[in-house]
Design brief:
single chain, mainly alpha, Endonuclease Iii, domain 2, 2 domains, 60% helix, globular
């Protein structure tokens, strides 16, 4: 990574802060995928509570297959958009059952592009969800772009507000060597949650205000 690139400076700063968690390590790939679906458009606390609620009743792909959408919806309510998320979970479980006999690991033996393309065919799974899942499940060397990372890239002038997911990802990945992308994803989200917040960012403790168009035009 280029030493004085703002993205490098942000990552260096966030590395020095508290431990970051690789939350997915304690769960199966299917549970990871359910957790990532739950985390769409919600904050961390509500997402985690909903994920715990889900696992208290439905732990496996078979459990999801056997459940009604309304039963899943009930236990993940606090994450918001619960009906749509429950339906997506059902869609995933049905797809894996029909195509792989319910064995997700068979799908995960394919290459990144093939798995990604298949996931994107499932209603409710978008690029970010697919990339986060592939990052955690098969160690894909990607930097999934969530809303925090999109905002940071925009404020730093790397992308426009209406940049596509793929463009934003490609611009960011050019700056980060493959082996550092997973940790970069985690630390950039942490930076977006804790410092470069959507409203009232803490620019006074940010390492890159001199590179930031938002700081120069809105804050200063
Ligand atoms: S200067 Fe402020 S708005 Fe710009 S990147 Fe830093 S925290 Fe975000």
């Amino acid at each position: 990574m280029m030493k004085n690139d703002p993205i490098s400076l942000i990552i260096e700063k966030m590395k020095k802060s508290d431990e970051h968690e690789e939350w997915w390590e304690d769960y199966t790939p299917f549970q990871n995928l359910m957790g990532i679906i739950i985390s769409q458009r919600t904050n961390m606390r509500n997402g985690l509570n909903a994920f715990r609620g889900l696992l208290s009743k439905f732990k496996t792909l078979e459990d999801i297959n056997d459940a009604e959408v309304s039963e899943i919806e009930q236990v993940i309510k606090c994450a918001g958009m619960a009906k749509a998320k429950a339906q997506t979970m059902k869609n995933v479980a049905r797809y894996i059952t029909e195509m792989y006999g319910g064995d997700l690991s068979k799908m995960l033996r394919k290459n990144y592009n093939d798995i990604r393309n298949e996931l994107l065919e499932i209603k409710g799974i978008g690029c970010k969800t697919a990339d986060v899942f592939l990052m955690v499940a098969v160690d894909a060397k990607v930097v999934p772009i969530d809303t925090h990372i999109h905002r940071i890239l925009m404020r730093l002038g790397f992308i426009r507000n209406n940049a596509s997911y793929e463009d934003a990802r490609s611009i960011l990945e050019k700056k980060i060597p493959p082996d550092e992308r997973k940790i970069a994803h985690i630390l950039l989200i942490k930076f977006g949650r804790e410092i470069c917040r959507a409203t009232k960012p803490f620019c006074q403790i940010c390492p890159v205000p001199r590179y930031c168009s938002y700081y120069k035009s809105v804050i200063k």
